């Protein structure tokens, strides 16, 4: 899940933080703006749940290659 698609869906960084807080997740504050381009997995799972899959959790974004 990419940060840009999440921010676009919710309509901004603050709106994203408000949506996560309204859903009962810990206060997000400036955390959203500090995410790397690939949203941290825990947050991505929460967002997929909140949006009912409208913003998809793509597990391949989080798989690590094993050498």
Chain-wise SSE layout:
Layout: H1 3-10, H2 13-22, H3 31-34, H4 41-50
Helix pairs in contact: 1-2
Kindly describe this structure.
- By secondary structure, the chain is mostly helical.
- α1 (3-10) crosses α2 (13-22).
- The chain contains four helices and no strands.
- The longest helix is centred in the first third of the chain and has 10 residues, at 13-22.
- The chain has one domain: 434 Repressor (Amino-terminal Domain).
- Helices cover 48% and strands 0% of the residues.
Could you report the average pLDDT, rounded to the nearest whole number?
90
Radius of gyration: 12 Å
Task: Count the domains.
Answer: 1
Looking at the structure, the CATH topology is 434 Repressor (Amino-terminal Domain)
Estimate the strand proportion: under 5%
Low-confidence stretches are none
Distance between the termini: 24 Å
Q: Number of helical segments?
A: 4
């Amino acid at each position: 899940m990419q940060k840009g698609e999440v921010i676009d869906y919710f309509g901004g960084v603050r709106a994203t933080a408000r949506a996560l807080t309204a859903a009962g997740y810990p206060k997000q504050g400036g955390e959203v703006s500090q995410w790397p381009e690939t949203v941290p997995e825990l947050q991505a799972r929460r967002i997929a749940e909140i949006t009912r899959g409208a913003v998809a959790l793509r597990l391949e974004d989080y798989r690590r290659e094993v050498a």
